[in-house]
Amino acid sequence: MRRKHFAAWAPHCPICIRDRGQSLPLLLGEITAEAQDDVEAATLVCAEASCRAEFPIIDGIPIIMANLRQHLGERAVELLLRDDLDPAVLSLLGDALGPDSWFDQIRQGVSTYAWDSYADADPAEAAGAQLPGAARRCLAALLALIDPVAVAAAGRVLDLGCAGGRTAFEVAAAAPSGLVLGIDSNLSLLRLARRAARQGEVDYDRRRIGLVYDRRRFTADLPGRDRVDFWACDATALPLAAGSADLILALNLLDCVPDPVGFLHHLAAMLRPGGALLVATPFDWATRATPALHWIGGHSQRGPGAGAAEPLLRSLLAGEHERGPAGLTVVGETDQDWHTRLHERAAVSYRTHCIAAKKTILRHALDKQM
What is the DSSP string of 49-109? Predict the structure, then answer.
């Protein structure tokens, strides 16, 4: 965890936010490993004496979640996996544990996101029908919808659901003085992203087919590495103060949360007045993530919108729907193709809807600035 990001974003105790409705700061506790401005191993402690909840920083990644016990119970194995095993040993483990095992699921996920994020920088990657960089192209389409001057001036940027981290570096290039904070709950992907940020190196097992993987390790010249950090947090309950961000990205995340409309309210609250929200979603709903009644479109075909998702999302973000967050104005929309590589012979294609909104600067806020 970079100290400058800790100071700028000033995380709050998520338990006190959830249980008390209070925003109380987290303090750095015992630090057991640190290099320059980077805290590699430590604890964060709630400043409230009656709480004193602790949150670990492991391999430089702070894990700040109200449901910390549950999350670590589900994903701690990702932090405990060794990164120094020989590819032949990993291949043997993959064969022994078999398809659909936790081990193979982790490897598949990392392969998919690492390839899309960084394969363009891999000298061993041959040109083919599958083209990496879907997330970067989607981000470029979103950034084209808003004022580039405002993007360049953004001081604090959130990349929610940052996955392998490439979009965090790309937006850092677009905001040359901004501190970019990538947020995800997938610890394996955060380790990949952090390595890219700290060492300029990408190291992952690229899935060829089935249980067959090839080790890929290469350097990557990524813009703004010193201004990017990655934290493990719940994107739907960020441990941050309201109005913290000048720019928020949420690429292919809206259809992965339990309450999408509530999530939009949360994002609006995180934006400062005048800030921009960039959302991309293929509306690829799944009931394991989002109950059908919470979907934005995709049901109620006999209703006024005939089940269409795009106009409903637009009305929510434009302040035209009674359930939408107040104070946002839609400034642009477009669609963007997105391809997700599974292995050498399979990919999933999406048509992602991109929408940009701006938070209104209220009259009294303008008066204070004058």
Answer: TTT--EEEEETTEEEE-TTHHHHHHHHHHHHHS-S---HHHHHHHHHHH-TTSHHHHHHHH
